[in-house]
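Usage

Read records sequentially. Each one opens with the input sequence:
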Amino acid sequence: MAKLKDIAAHLGLSPATVSRALNGFPEVGAKTRARVLAASKEFNYAPNTNAKRLATGKSGVVGMVFRSGRNLLLDPHFVDFLAGLSLVLSEREIDLTIRVAPPGQQLAHYKRFVQSGSVDGMIISAPEVDDERIRTLLEADFPFVVHGCTQKSAPYAFYDIDNDGALTDAVQLLDQMGHKRIAFINGPQDLVFAQQRLDAFMRETSKRAHSVPDQFIAHDDMREDLGYSQAAQMLDGDAKTRPTAFICSSTLQALGIMRAASEAGLVVGKDLSIVAHDDVLPHFRSEHFSVPLTVTRAPIRDAATHLGKMISAVVEGVKPSKLQHTEKTELVVRASTGAAPEGGEKPW
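and closes with the structure output:
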């Protein structure tokens, strides 16, 4: 069986350089890393994982704790995110361990991970407005990355999307189409992304003198059934006072809104417009809806890929301040949005 020194001799490199290339150290150039990876495949080289862990003092494992009372495998966002993350980590020979905890019980899991030394770092998903998990890991000086960002000048590594820009684009589009009565179906209000989207929605509608009654803003899990029930309630009223457009935080919610619209006898794109945020799920494509959906788009798979690379780098000692990224969203206009119906240009 080939050894690391065999690859080093073959390439004319030092064993240390080969080791660093295989382990993804940032100081190794891309061309050198590519040569080392190609040679390792040619030689069918398999590193001794136990020896590596003994030498580095690292477990080769990172952890995640999800809050959920439901079967996560039924959530297409979770499945696609996990698929992308697992692929990146496996390429770096890092294992992923997952825990599921009810809301309010996640912090105890994080503390156990830190105290046990069973993982080298943590990936925080769905950060809250006042997130004790982030404070705990910062105080412990424990490596972590966040899917989202809770503050400006954050002292940690993160990958986020421009939630403010996404809602700004959505409100602006509907306003240009003449809509004055825009409802908003959002995610859970205690989560940072939902608060960012709400703040942008309120600012942009207020800027355009659109007064939005409280009953036309909803917060909850981003599910089809909840999107349906929330929209059905909002549409159960006089045509002169009900919404002519919806903005929602998920394509799952949009699917529920479409069902509610159909039951109310409304044609999406004509009587009612819908804009949703789209995580670009491979088996749930917004362009294939019965009425192709207008979206602000940012693939969740991209987030998983970046976070996998980031946690690997943070564990190896790269400064968190060098691992911070906010991705712009793309507005894609399709048939689910159209001009406000007659009377829809009048505010509430």
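Summary fields computed downstream for this record:
- The radius of gyration is 24 Å.
- Residues 76-91 form the longest helix (16 residues).
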